[in-house]
Amino acid sequence: MDGCPPLAGVQGVETMSGKLKADTTNNYAYNKILQPFANKLRKEMTKAEACLWKYALHAGHMKGYQFRRQRPVLRYIADFLCKELKLVIEVDGITHQDDETGEKDKQKTSDLESAGFKVIRFTDEEVLKNMNGVMKKIERVVEEMEMSSPPPAPPPAGDSYPCTSASEDKGGYEIPGKTTIL
Which terminus of the chain is more exposed, N or C, with fewer CB under 10 A? Predict the structure, then answer.
């Protein structure tokens, strides 16, 4: 991320402490300071990122979940992020093979996991040469996350509208305080 400003001490962004938990109260650890850099990366996606976006993650292709590309989170920009699942998908190019970048990737993964995200990584080569395998792996992870997360809470009392028998004879139903719907 050449040209990115240093973020140590930026208010609202935890760095390497693991104390911040991503949730709806903080827009899943969104970092608006990184937005201009995320926009630039979104316009300059690698071939592997573009393929994964187009064929697997765009427009709810992945089991109906919405993924965002190049999403600023904590002090990083995640390649792909699903807020609902708290799932981050990273696509690593050849530059991620050197020791220094590999260590930065480990720290990024650790920080994101400490904040409550699940992180999965693929190489450019995996995405470009085995898209079906990559998609199946993501699907398996999503299914595991669906099974391990608790079901949504039922609506609060008073929010449901029971049908009344008076209108059932007419083939409709009645919402208390509302007109009969046929």
Answer: C
Range of lowest pLDDT (20-34, 76-90, 132-146): 20-34
What stretches of the chain adopt beta strand conformation (E)? 68-73, 76-82, 87-92, 118-123, 173-174, 180-181
The CATH code that applies to domain 24-148 is: 3.40.960.10
Residue 163's identity, in one-letter code, is: C
- Residue 103 makes CB contacts below 8 A (sequence gap 6+) with none
Give yes or no for a contact between 142 and 88, defined as CB atoms under 8 angstroms apart: no
Q: 55 near 49, Cβ under 8 Å?
A: no
The gap from C-alpha 24 to its chain's centroid, in whole angstroms, comes to 12
Q: What percent of the chain has pLDDT over 70?
A: 71
What DSSP state is assigned to residue 30?
A: B
Instruction: Give residue limits of the domains in the chain.
Output: 24-148
